[in-house]
């Protein structure tokens, strides 16, 4: 029997189980006379004995006794486990010492090794051994079991490690997830490495001495196979790892033996050729003997490997623990690459193929990584034909794996297969894999980019190089054409994102993608004469590629959707970035004017070319080069402005001037002068047109050509006013005059009103920005306030314009402007002058606009459409849906930020079910944000929404109280209530005030008007209780009782005793009460309430009720008739919510809290009520303070 050393208990993360080990004397161990009953008595006695016996058995070798300083004391490592866990560097010396001990006494040394594996499993129990005697242990197979002794609380496992029967004893409460191999931290990670190294070194050092004695390996293999069959995870995991590493070491050993045998055979042939008849054959006899020795060793190792494979691998590669399965797959892949003659066969490859379908991503990942090592060697390809045929489709589909790392490794594996083995992938497979360059996950896209570059682009270069003989041939030409052709084919099928394609290839083809000189030469026609001219589509794609590469080089960051937060660049990356920016600026400041001149009439190409200057860094450009080419560049931009009227082109030109001028105006002076000159010309032209065609009495008197000219000037000025502060040109006054005339008198053309509305908005924003920076005078701020109110009035009037496009634009501008000029984010002094909150009339108009433009159903067209018409209509529907989502989001932002009243959200929530697919995410986010702002008001908004829908339903049913179970309208309201209840989540404590408020308002609404009916009829809203019951499951149990007591105050009317009333009330009552005991306890408490309250002694289960005067109830004040006792709670109660007792101390109890929060009149007595409810309730329902 060998117990765990005392020092192990002091290692990190070890737990005390209260069970101490005893060490039996050496003679007892060797004679095998240690009985199980004796072990039980030992544990029952819980005696604690040091391991002097164990220390005496040790050899006083310095290698086996490394000293380690802990807490100022020298601790000696006396066991293999301690030596390995302390991380002794000279692992070979440790193994050599153990081999010497084995040669002296193999039983003691083997028991030491056995105990090492047991301790590595995290077992703090003991190991006993008895020698196996077949004559006395015929029932040995029956002993190979795991049992549990209830008396001692110990678990036993008895198994055979030939020639011994081992019994492992450990406490049953041993944590199955807390053993060395799974513990976190660098300490235990190093232990795992040392453990694997120990197993490998053990085989390596034993190969020349004791490995083939038919005793050592048989015992170790029996031990590991027995532990691998245990139900304890720690034993299975540790023994499987040890067995697999042991087999790996044997594989390496047998490979070295085969090499030595091969060399010996060659030497034998050489010696045989040298031998003559006159010489003896002594040398040949020695070589022959050595050869037979190698063959015998080879056979012995083969038997060992078979035993481990069949005894451990075949049992554990399908283990329930994914870590164990991953170990098996990782090692078998290692065996295949190390010893392919034995393991690289279909009989072994099938295990990797089967595990490709494993549910755990770690196991699938190990399969792919192992296959990468196999397919990475061309010499092994001839043995993979059947495997490739069987599992190729699975490998291709794994690129769509849910785990990103698995998908990346699958892509890399397929790339190796395509490179090293011809016809491994079909053209259809390659086309599928190429499309992953557009994936949002960047590592997968980069792997696909490497696959695309090596399979398609590089291949095109080789074909082109083989066919061309011209010495001036440029390889980049073939690469670019292949890349452009691929993108055009992808664009036709699905994708049109050059930026993502460039980012995927950025790491593999930097020389190609940064060759801007050659790209622009192709566009300008300055390339070699033998090059074929580019088509219009090729030119368009090439310009997009240039823009994408410039952006990637300047920003050094993946495009939107592929990268998270910007990482800090290293010094090397910063150097590359600066060099690229310098190249971009110096090259394109020269070439870009030529490109703009060539493609000046092409809107799309010019727009992309005008995006390039935003990545210029003029400080890096030489002054001489800048002065030489800047004038030409600015003149070309001015020419583009004069030729185009498209918004995208004009905005791009305005951004070019803004970039070159600098954000703070510190840019080149030539750029600022050129911009001011251009704006002067545009404003002068606009004023001249308005003076020519404007009639004070009749409005705009212009022909079609004059209107078109005014529209062009307004578009150009709007684009520049959006990017530049043009306040000194005072553009707001004439634009406001133009927009106001449309409101007051004759209508103006929409093509004029659209840019005028946007330009006036930009002018106001620049004025407001100046005011926020405290650079404006008080008079300017007062004028700004006048302009803001005037502009809001204009936008409000435009909400009813005849043009839908203009109405939606005015709505978007108005919502954004209200967000800006509301009280959010303004300084105290500026609030008084600029603050403008929407009036109730404006709020109603905004809500009506949303109802009409977002939720209104559009008429359907009943006519047969062609394929093109259907496709066009679908695109129009998508565009319209996107615009509606923008409108709804803009209005919901006003609700969330308290610009409009939160109750307006009730009208939005009504459409939650019907428009869930289109606007469900926006409505749900609005509900979440409003709840964060004010959870009580948000709850009132929800119940208000349901009340309005119920009233609408009741009017359609002629105010009938009958219930139709198949009424779709009523069922839709119930389903909406259920959806609302789901939004409160699982934390009932967090949402208890909100849910209680919903029940309180719902009950009051259901019994609304009960006092005026005088028992003649039922309340009109009584069936609302059915809807309210959807929120009952969100109440805590004590809150249900309190809500039920609140409900009983309204159920004492004689009219409510009718049978037709029972259904609604009984349904709601059932949702609140779990049993009749809760009801009886509540009613018994209510019977003790003071007489000045309106009591309710009715027991619904008995069908009786008290007679209460309706006159008395009608004369009772509202606060007394429906007392707000719902928020009353006691601080000390008979029932407590588990883990929430501490929350009671945060709330004051009694009348003081009530008066502070609810302003109860002095005439209402609350003391008795608090005392009574203290016995029945324990936690505040509504009156609790809101969470911050």
From TrEMBL:
InterPro entries xrefs: ARM-type_fold (IPR016024), Cohesin_Scc3/SA (IPR039662), HEAT_SCC3-SA (IPR056396), SCD (IPR020839), STAG (IPR013721)
A Gene Ontology molecular function term of the record: chromatin binding
Family listed: Belongs to the SCC3 family.
Protein name as catalogued: Cohesin subunit SA
Subcellular location: Nucleus; Chromosome; Chromosome, Centromere
UniProt feature coiled coil, ranges: 277-307
Superkingdom of origin organism: Eukaryota
Function (record text): Component of cohesin complex, a complex required for the cohesion of sister chromatids after DNA replication. The cohesin complex apparently forms a large proteinaceous ring within which sister chromatids can be trapped. At anaphase, the complex is cleaved and dissociates from chromatin, allowing sister chromatids to segregate.
PANTHER family: COHESIN SUBUNIT SA, STROMAL ANTIGEN
């Amino acid at each position: 029997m060998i117990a765990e050393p005392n020092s192990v208990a002091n290692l990190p993360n070890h737990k005390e189980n209260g069970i101490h080990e005893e060490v039996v004397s050496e003679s007892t161990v060797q004679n095998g006379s240690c009985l199980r009953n004796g072990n039980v008595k030992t544990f029952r006695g819980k005696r604690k004995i040091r391991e002097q016996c164990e220390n005496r058995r040790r050899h006083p070798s310095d290698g086996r006794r490394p000293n380690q300083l802990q807490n100022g004391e020298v601790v000696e490592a006396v066991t293999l486990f301690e030596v390995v866990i302390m991380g002794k560097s000279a692992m070979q010396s440790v193994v050599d010492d153990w081999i010497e001990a084995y040669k002296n006494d193999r039983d003691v040394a083997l028991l030491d090794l056995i105990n090492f594996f047991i301790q590595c499993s995290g077992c703090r129990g003991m190991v006993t051994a008895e020698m196996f005697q077949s004559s006395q242990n015929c029932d040995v197979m029956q002993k190979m079991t795991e049992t549990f002794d209830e008396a001692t609380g110990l678990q036993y496992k008895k198994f055979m490690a030939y020639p011994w029967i081992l019994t492992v004893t450990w406490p049953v409460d041993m944590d199955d997830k807390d053993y060395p191999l799974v513990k976190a931290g660098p300490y235990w990670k190093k232990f795992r490495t040392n453990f694997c190294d120990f197993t490998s070194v053990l085989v390596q050092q034993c190969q020349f001495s004791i490995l083939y004695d038919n005793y050592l390996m048989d015992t170790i293999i029996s031990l590991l196979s027995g532990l691998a069959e245990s139900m304890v995870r720690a034993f299975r995991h540790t023994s499987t790892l040890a067995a697999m590493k042991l087999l790996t070491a044997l594989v390496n050993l047998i490979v070295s033996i085969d090499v030595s045998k091969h060399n010996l055979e060659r030497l034998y042939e050489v010696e045989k050729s040298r031998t003559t008849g006159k010489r003896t054959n002594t040398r040949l006899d020695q070589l022959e003997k050595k050869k037979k020795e190698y063959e015998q060793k080879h056979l012995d190792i083969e038997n060992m490997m078979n035993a481990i494979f069949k005894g451990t691998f075949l049992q554990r590669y399908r283990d329930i623990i994914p870590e164990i399965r991953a170990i098996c797959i990782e090692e078998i892949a290692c065996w295949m690459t190390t010893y392919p003659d034995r393991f690289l066969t279909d009989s072994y490859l099938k295990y990797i193929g089967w595990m490709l379908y494993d549910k755990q991503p770690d196991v699938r990942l190990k399969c792919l990584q192992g296959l990468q090592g196999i397919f990475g060697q061309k010499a092994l390809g001839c043995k993979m034909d059947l495997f490739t045929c069987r599992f190729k489709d699975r490998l291709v589909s794994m690129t769509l794996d849910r785990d990103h790392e698995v998908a990346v490794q699958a892509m890399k594996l397929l790339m190796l297969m395509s490179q090293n083995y011809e016809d491994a992938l079909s053209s259809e497979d390659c086309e599928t894999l190429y499309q992953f360059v557009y994936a949002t996950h960047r590592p997968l896209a980069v792997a696909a980019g490497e696959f695309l570059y090596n399979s398609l682009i590089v291949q095109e270069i080789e074909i082109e190089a083989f066919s061309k003989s011209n010495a001036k041939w440029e390889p980049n030409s073939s690469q670019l054409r292949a890349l452009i052709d691929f993108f055009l084919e992808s664009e036709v099928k699905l994708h049109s994102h050059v930026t993502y394609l460039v980012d995927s290839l950025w790491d593999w083809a930097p020389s190609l993608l940064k060759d801007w000189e050659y790209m622009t030469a192709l566009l300008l026609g300055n390339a070699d004469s033998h090059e074929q001219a580019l088509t219009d589509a090729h030119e368009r794609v090439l310009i997009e590629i240039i823009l994408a590469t410039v952006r990637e080089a300047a920003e050094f960051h993946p495009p939107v959707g592929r990268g998270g937060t910007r990482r800090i660049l290293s010094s090397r990356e910063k150097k590359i970035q600066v060099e690229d920016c310098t190249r971009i600026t110096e090259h394109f400041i020269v070439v870009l004017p030529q490109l703009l001149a060539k493609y000046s009439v092409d809107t799309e190409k010019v727009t992309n070319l005008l995006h390039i200057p935003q990545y210029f860094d003029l400080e890096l450009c030489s002054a001489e080069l800048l002065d030489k080419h800047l004038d030409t560049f600015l003149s070309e931009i001015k020419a583009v402005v004069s030729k185009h009227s498209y918004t995208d082109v004009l905005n791009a030109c305005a951004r070019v001037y803004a970039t070159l001028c600098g954000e703070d105006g510190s840019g080149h002076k030539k750029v600022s002068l050129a911009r001011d000159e251009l704006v002067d010309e545009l404003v002068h032209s606009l004023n001249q047109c308005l003076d020519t065609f404007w009639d004070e009495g009749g409005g705009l008197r212009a022909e079609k050509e004059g209107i078109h000219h005014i529209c062009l000037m307004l578009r150009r000025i709007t684009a520049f006013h959006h990017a530049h502060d043009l306040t000194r040109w005072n553009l707001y006054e004439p634009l406001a005059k133009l927009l106001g005339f449309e409101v007051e008198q004759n209508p103006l053309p929409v093509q004029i009103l659209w840019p005028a509305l946007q330009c006036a908005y930009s002018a106001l924003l620049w004025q407001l920005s100046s005011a926020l920076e405290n650079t404006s005078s008080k008079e300017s701020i007062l004028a700004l306030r006048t302009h803001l109110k005037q502009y809001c009035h204009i936008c409000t009037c435009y909400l009813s314009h005849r043009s839908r496009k203009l109405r939606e634009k005015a709505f978007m501008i108005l919502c954004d402007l209200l967000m800006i000029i509301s009280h959010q984010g303004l300084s105290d002094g500026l609030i008084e002058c600029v603050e403008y909150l929407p009036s109730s009339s404006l709020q109603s108009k905004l809500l009506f606009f949303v109802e009409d433009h977002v939720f209104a159903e559009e008429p359907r067209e009943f006519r047969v459409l062609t394929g093109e018409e259907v496709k066009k209509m679908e695109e129009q529907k998508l565009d319209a849906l996107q615009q509606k989502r923008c409108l709804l989001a803009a209005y919901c932002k006003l609700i969330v930020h308290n610009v409009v009243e939160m109750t307006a959200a009730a009208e939005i929530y009504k459409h939650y079910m019907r428009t869930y697919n289109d606007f469900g995410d926006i409505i749900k986010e609005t509900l979440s944000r409003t709840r964060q702002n004010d959870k009580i008001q948000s709850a009132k908004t929800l119940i208000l929404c349901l009340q309005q829908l119920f009233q609408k339903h009741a009017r359609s049913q002629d105010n009938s109280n009958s219930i139709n179970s198949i009424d779709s309208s009523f069922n839709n309201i119930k389903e909406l209530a259920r959806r609302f209840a789901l939004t409160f989540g699982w934390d009932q404590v967090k949402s208890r005030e909100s849910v209680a408020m919903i029940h309180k308002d719902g009950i009051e609404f259901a019994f609304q008007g009960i006092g005026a009916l005088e028992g003649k009829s039922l309340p009109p809203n009584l069936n609302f209780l059915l809807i309210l019951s959807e929120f009952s499951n969100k109440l805590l149990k004590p809150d249900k009782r309190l809500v039920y007591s609140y409900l009983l105050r309204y159920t004492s009317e004689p009219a409510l005793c009718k049978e037709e009333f029972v259904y609604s009330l009984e349904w709601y009552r059932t949702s609140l009460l779990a049993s009749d005991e809760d009801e009886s306890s509540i009613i018994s408490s209510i019977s003790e309430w003071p007489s000045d309250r309106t009591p309710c002694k009715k027991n619904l289960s008995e069908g009786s009720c008290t007679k209460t005067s309706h006159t008395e109830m009608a004369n009772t004040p509202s606060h007394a008739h429906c007392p707000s006792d719902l928020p009353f709670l006691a601080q000390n109660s008979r029932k407590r919510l588990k883990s929430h007792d501490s929350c009671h101390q945060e709330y004051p109890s009694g009348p003081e809290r009530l008066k502070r929060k609810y302003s109860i009149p002095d005439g209402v007595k609350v003391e008795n009520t608090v005392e009574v409810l203290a016995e029945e309730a324990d936690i505040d329902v509504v009156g609790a303070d809101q969470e911050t």
